[in-house]
Amino acid sequence: MGEERVNILGMSPEQLVDYCGTLGEKPFRARQLLRWIHQCGVGDFDAMTDLAKSFRAKLNRIAEIRAPSVLADHVSQDGTRKWLLDVGQGNAIESVFIPEDDRGTLCVSTQAGCAVNCLFCSTGKQGFNRNLTADEIIGQLWMAEAAVRKSRGVPPGKDGRQISNVVMMGMGEPLHNFDATVAALKLMLDDNAYGLSRRRVTVSTCGVVPMMDKLAKECPVALAVSLHAPNDKLRDVLVPLNRRYPLAELMAACRRYFEHAPRDFVMFEYCMLNGVNDSDVHAKELVQLVRRGPTAVPCKVNLIPFNSIPMPGLSRSTDERIEAFAKILRDAGIITTIRKTRGDDIEAACGLLAGEIMDKTRVQERMAEKGIGTEGYIKTYTFKNVCS
Ligand code: SAH
Ligand code: SF4
């Protein structure tokens, strides 16, 4: 043994062709491998019966197919299923499967922690630990498809795919981990792998403008942008990256993206925070923002009721307030949905993915180290000043 084996789970179709080339194998071997691994969910080279025995033996010596191991697996009362996955060195990430009548959606993570530190997000409170590798990103889909099949009695194989949609809305900012994210996206889209259409794969970003342009060029999938505020003053506080890429730049980037996008709208996510960003005035400002002259962008708005995290000063808007906010947008002709909160009882809802394995007190310690204890935080950002 001794030598470390290469994990080929996250190799993009092109990388796998190159890898087979280095082993003296023809490009069609890469296609066969892709089909076995991703279409059929096989993780054992010996089961790949149309590969020569000698090639299988070689792969067994030098390569492996390894997804992050499952530390915990919870099913919510509403059928939502959440896995806690080990990515080493005390870091854990989460993936969530959301079953619906006409689809099965997997929400995947792209980083352990996140550097953006949005005020209302528990992943952000963890701080940034590290980028996930392509193996770890696609490994979530590979593992989840197999697990859902097993629980539903669907045998492994090409037919009967259970996960029809993927959203990169788990832990982390996908566009801060661009290369690994795109390698995983390419596998999701490839006909020899998962064969998902671009419309069924969504990248959610808090607005990393240059990388939105890069994504449009290299791998345009459906786009969700986490907006959360209709003006820079408030967004600077809620989504600190706004100080770097303010709203005018973000809206212009959305419009540019739209030219390449597989759908005829960009989805704006808006987390509803009681008394912070949920007034009629904010709603009208939001209409103005998405409509305004040269930066107008065809969009839909998805209102997400805030999932409570222990952050003084933040609470969920009332249902009445959310309805009133939605009505203003709808009356202005903007298609607006209100997200149903799923998996609440297993902490699988948006923004609650913090990784139970992480000692939560460590988060507090880290914040204290950075001089941003929770209280100080709220004091620095007094909502009264920014929510006029
Ligand atoms: N980093 C990316 C994707 C992961 S976050 C992004 O920010 O878009 C996925 C979504 O969950 C984002 O829209 C985010 O703003 C939202 N979210 C984060 N914390 C939340 C919370 N506590 N309640 C509701 N939504 C939250
Ligand atoms: Fe990061 Fe997204 Fe959470 Fe903001 S909302 S801290 S960008 S994961």
Description of the structure:
- The model is unreliable at 355-388 (pLDDT under 50).
- The radius of gyration is 22 Å and the shape is elongated.
- The longest helix has 19 residues, at 134-152.
- Helix 7 (209-218) links the parallel strand 10 (201-205) and strand 11 (222-226).
- The strands form 3 sheets. A 10-stranded mixed sheet has the order 3-4-5-6-9-10-11-12-13-14. It has a two-stranded parallel ribbon with strand order 1-2.
- The protein is built from 14 helices and 14 strands.
- The chain is α/β, with parallel strands linked by helices.
- It starts with 5 loop residues before the first strand and ends with a helix.
- Bound molecules: S-adenosyl-L-homocysteine (SAH) and iron/sulfur cluster (SF4).
In the CATH scheme, the class of the largest domain would be Alpha Beta
The CATH topology of the largest domain comes to TIM Barrel
**Can you give the helix content as a percent range?**
25-40%
State the helix count: 14
Q: What's the architecture of the largest domain in CATH terms?
A: Alpha-Beta Barrel
